[in-house]
Design brief:
Helices cover about 35% and strands about 15% of the residues. With about 425 residues, the protein is an alpha+beta fold.
């Protein structure tokens, strides 16, 4: 082979090597990118749980130590330091859009999911309204809404200390902390943490956050009792009726659907086993036919006697205009305090007009299907008979509009959706139940 041939051969081999190198590099980049994107998706799913899917919690091999009922030995546990809420503002941070309902059928479950420690307490631009309502009710009726039993005082103080530690970490533009006080920078209210406290510790806790609070403590009979609570914005129930009751009686006295056959055993086991390092969340929802966050006058005066309270929804005005219908959802967190052993409920209420919620894509059809799927016991508990005609007519109309505009599809088939509506036994169209 002459010199020119050798040169051409070397040039050809060099080009082949270069192309091979580029091909392998691109292949490696594509594989790495796919793995990276998949990891981001997995992280996103774990941090933003889908409330329309079955609830789940991380499984661990940890087994709680055996102990006699009513005995709790303090454990060494420190809550992980909270990261600041990104770009949080008391003026612009909107409430999170919890819509914890799905297409029927309706299932009665505890619906627990794992909580990330950063997300223990949620604050937003509704804080001024919540704080004003709480402050007013504390001034007017603190003894009826905020109370701590003597044996639970240490647990309520522990909760106050936990909040005073967490809130400046998570919301540094709203709260600042010194060794023995916490200050709200929005209203310049400082709460001293020195003993003796100026108020019941559970009342002071209530002024710091938008949630209602309840702390359950185990007694020698193995039951958990409500021994400290700040129930100021519950809408439908009063602390004075439930204070000192065991968990089971709280639910049975409130006629909670399916509690005895479906919830009681699992709930008692959960309370017995929950550890300080294993916080959880759950959500629920109601329809309310007035705009009072603190107490729904539709079910009667707040200070009526127990017999009148027992009538509940039967006293509500029937078929009020849709403008009076509100979606009331609750986000509840549960965690055990490491020192006292009390189990803390935080109960954050989100309150929105149905006319506002129904503008969201897919919501009117899904909510209509959920309301229709309630069994008789759930329907009675949620007062459906008093508002279903007006509510469902409106939701069906809004869902039909969304179908016509191409925002959603109609009825389901094999897990998907197709055009159409829900028909009654005689074939008449009774509503939409699409996606």
């Amino acid at each position: 082979m002459d010199l020119e041939g050798c040169r051409r051969l070397l040039l050809t081999n060099a080009k082949s090597a270069l192309y091979g190198f580029l091909f392998i590099s691109v292949l490696i980049w594509l594989i790495a990118r796919k793995v990276f994107v998949r990891e981001l998706v997995l992280q996103s799913r774990s941090s933003t749980p889908d409330l329309e899917k079955p609830a789940s919690r991380q499984r661990t091999n940890f087994k709680a130590a055996e102990r006699p009922p009513g005995v709790w030995a303090p454990v060494e546990f420190t809550r992980p330091k909270a990261n600041p809420y990104p770009d949080w503002s008391i003026e612009t941070t909107k409430p999170l859009p919890y819509r914890p309902f799905k297409h029927g059928p309706y299932h009665i479950t505890m619906g627990l999911r794992t909580m990330h420690w950063d997300d223990w307490i949620e604050l937003d631009n509704q804080f001024p309204r919540f704080h004003a309502d709480k402050s007013r009710r504390i001034a007017e009726r603190e003894e009826k809404c905020c109370k701590t039993a003597p044996e639970a005082y240490a647990g309520a103080v522990e909760l106050l200390e936990e909040l005073a530690d967490y809130l400046p970490q998570r919301y540094p533009t709203l709260y600042t902390r010194t060794r023995d006080s916490i200050t709200n920078l929005w209203n310049n209210q400082t709460i001293s943490l020195r003993q003796p406290l100026e108020k019941d510790p559970i009342t002071l806790c209530a002024l710091l956050i938008q949630d209602d609070l309840a702390i359950m403590f185990e007694k020698e009979d193995g039951q958990y009792y409500l021994l400290s609570g700040s129930i100021l914005l519950a809408g439908f129930w009063r602390l004075i009726d439930k204070f000192g009751m065991p968990l089971s009686e709280i639910h049975t006295s409130g006629d909670v659907p399916g509690f005895k056959p479906k919830l009681e055993k699992g709930m008692m086991n959960f309370f017995r086993r929950i550890q300080p390092s294993q916080p959880v969340l759950r959500n629920n929802y109601f329809i309310q036919v007035d705009d009072d966050l603190a107490w729904s006058p539709s079910i009667g005066p707040e200070d009526s006697d127990a017999q009148s309270q027992a009538q509940g929804w039967t006293t509500a005005e029937k078929d009020k205009a849709i403008e009076h219908h509100f979606l009331r959802t609750e986000r509840q967190s549960l965690r055990r305090l490491p020192k006292s052993g009390g189990v803390v409920f935080t109960i954050r209420t989100y309150f929105h007009p149905i006319t506002e919620v129904a503008r969201e894509k897919g919501v009117p059809g899904r909510l209509a299907s959920a309301v229709r799927s309630w069994g008789d016991d759930v329907a009675r508990y949620k007062g459906r008979e008093r508002y279903q005609a007006v509510l469902l007519e409106y939701l069906d109309r809004e869902h039909g509009r969304q179908i016509a505009e191409g925002l959603v599809r109609g009825m389901r088939r094999r897990g998907r959706c197709r055009g159409g509506g829900i028909r009654g036994e005689s074939g008449e169209l009774v509503g939409f139940g699409g996606c």
